[in-house]
Automatic annotation (TrEMBL):
Protein name: ferredoxin--NADP(+) reductase
GO MF entries: ferredoxin-NADP+ reductase activity
Recorded superkingdom: Bacteria
Binding site for NADP(+): 159-162, 203-204, 215, 377
Cited Gene3D superfamilies: FAD/NAD(P)-binding domain, NAD(P)-binding Rossmann-like Domain
Cofactors: FAD
């Protein structure tokens, strides 16, 4: 095949929204539409199933966001895009192998781990990272099946949407999650939880929350959970008032807070669980008991500084809690042989072109999504990010792969003994999970839409045997 006849071969590492959007935008790019170039894309993921953050990061009771899977599914049906699951970059596939088989590689590996918080007591039994808990309730194959839900009182640190997800799931009654795809072990764990109070702490003021209005309002929809606000936390300075006036998102958030404050004053019947929203308090220390278990959290009171910031007052407030979840942001993980900015937790890149220590682009290597720009922004913002990356990829395009034949890739993985899954395999696993759901019931006796398979081996077995059965049909 001459170089100008063959398609540009592109590998995408990570089958989450960032990787799938990049593949989609590449396959629908102007250069492709105008016939200047053809593309053939393989998306790899270390998990046997695709969809990354949507499957393993979005809360189960967020069907609207989980629904993004439908549009990602459609993209993956494109015959120019293949899926190879259960393949880990750096372990099952090296950079040299990728370079041999592809003209360009896009890293879209996201951010999976929690940012660290350096306060005394953070290592105590009962102190957790939100990302680990999210992975557990989303049935991630690589985390333990059991989660210790023994605490009656819980602190959640952070004022972003992950803090809201974690606080909502911790405070909800487990039966109310049966309409979702939560696995059986997660239902059983949450059902046994003795929780009564979940305290969410923001270090800044109410006008500096990072929640989005829809997600904040959703808290009020949990059955038998009262939202509790504390008058001393609800402080506004001139900078706060200016922010509320000029920013519709902040205005909407404060409107919700004001509404809840009014409802709280009128409340005559009380729920069995409470979700407290605290502001202007920074975590100072987690206090342990004699057995090394979390017994309390000490928070330092902050005050607004008049210029949009805060300053500590020195006043310490202690809350009895038996568990602490830090939801203070995610942090990307370093990939073998790829430059990494350890301060920001991202691949070193300029507008999606991977660069070396002298800021010189490394030919053929690109990044997109959270591993490119850091763990901020809603799923939609990943699209504009991917557009920038693939625009550069097409500008730079060069046919460099020694083995661009698509069939060389499964052969390479087979030779390496990698039990990879495919898009046909996902169809099989998807059908299996839906069948498990149809056979189960929610609290109202209705069939469930899906029950997730959690064990990696089981996912691989169902995918691989289902895919080969499809091939026999
Ligand atoms: P985030 O929005 O950046 O929020 C992190 C929070 O942690 C902020 O309130 C931050 O406070 C606080 N924080 C950071 N360091 C702290 C410290 N040392 N002590 C106390 N607090 C600290 O991050 P995220 O919640 O992980 O969310 C990541 C992205 O995913 C966001 O864009 C989010 O909207 C999105 N997301 C969306 C949904 C959804 O349902 N739509 C769900 C989950 C996540 P400061 O503001 O003071 O820095």
């Amino acid at each position: 095949m001459s170089q100008d006849q063959r398609p540009l071969r592109v590998a995408v590492i990570g089958a989450g929204p960032a990787g799938i959007y990049a593949a989609d935008l590449l396959s629908r790019s102007e250069a492709v539409a105008e016939g200047q170039v053809r593309v053939s894309i393989d998306i790899f993921d270390r998990y046997p199933a695709p969809f990354g953050l949507i499957r393993y990061g979005v809360a189960p009771d967020h069907p609207r966001i989980k629904g993004i899977v439908n549009s990602l599914h459609k993209i993956m049906e494109n015959p120019d895009i293949r899926f190879f699951g259960n393949v880990e970059y750096g372990a099952d596939l090296s950079l040299a192998q990728l370079r041999e088989h592809y003209d360009a590689v896009i890293f879209a590996t996201g951010a999976f781990y929690d940012a660290s918080l350096h306060i005394p007591g953070i290592e105590l039994d009962g102190s957790y990272g939100a990302a680990d808990f999210v992975a557990w309730y989303d049935g991630h194959p690589d985390v333990p099946r059991q989660w210790p839900l023994r605490a009656k009182e819980i602190a959640v640190l952070g004022n972003g949407n992950v803090a809201l997800d974690v606080a909502r799931v911790l405070s909800k009654h487990a039966e109310d999650l049966l309409t979702t795809e939560i696995p059986e072990n997660v239902y059983a764990g949450l059902k046994a939880s003795p929780v009564t109070d979940v305290h969410v702490f923001g270090r800044r003021g109410p006008a500096q929350m990072k929640f989005t209005p829809l997600e904040l309002r959703e808290l009020a929809k949990s059955r038998d959970v009262d939202i509790v606000l504390h008058e001393e936390d609800l402080q506004y300075d001139d900078a706060s008032r200016a922010a509320i006036e000029s920013n519709n998102q902040i205005k909407a958030l404060i409107k919700t807070i004001d509404k809840w404050k009014a409802e709280q004053a009128e409340r005559t019947e009380h729920a069995s669980r409470r979700l407290h929203l605290h502001f202007l308090q920074s975590p100072a220390e987690i206090v342990g008991d004699a057995d090394g278990k979390v017994a309390a959290i000490r928070m330092e009171r902050n005050e607004l500084d008049g210029a949009g910031g805060i300053r500590p007052t020195g006043e310490i407030l202690e809350y009895p809690v038996q568990a602490v979840y830090r939801a203070i942001g995610y942090f990307g993980s370093e990939l073998p042989e790829i430059g990494f900015d350890r301060t920001r937790g991202v691949i070193t890149n300029v507008e999606g072109r991977v660069v070396d220590e002298t800021e010189t682009p490394v030919p053929g290597l690109y990044a997109t999504g959270w591993i490119k720009r850091g763990p901020v922004g809603l799923i939609g913002s990943t699209k504009s990010d991917a557009l920038e990356t693939i625009t550069h990829l097409l500008e730079d395009r060069a046919f460099t792969a020694a083995h661009p034949e698509p069939e060389a890739v499964p052969a390479l993985l087979d030779r390496g003994g990698v039990e990879f899954t495919t898009w046909e395999g996902w169809h099989a696993l998807d059908a299996h999970e839906k069948a498990l759901g149809a056979a189960a019931q929610d609290a109202a006796g209705n069939p469930r839409q899906r029950v997730k398979v959690v064990e990696r081996e089981q996912m691989v077995d169902i995918s691989r045997s289902g895919a080969s059965a499809d091939a026999r049909d």
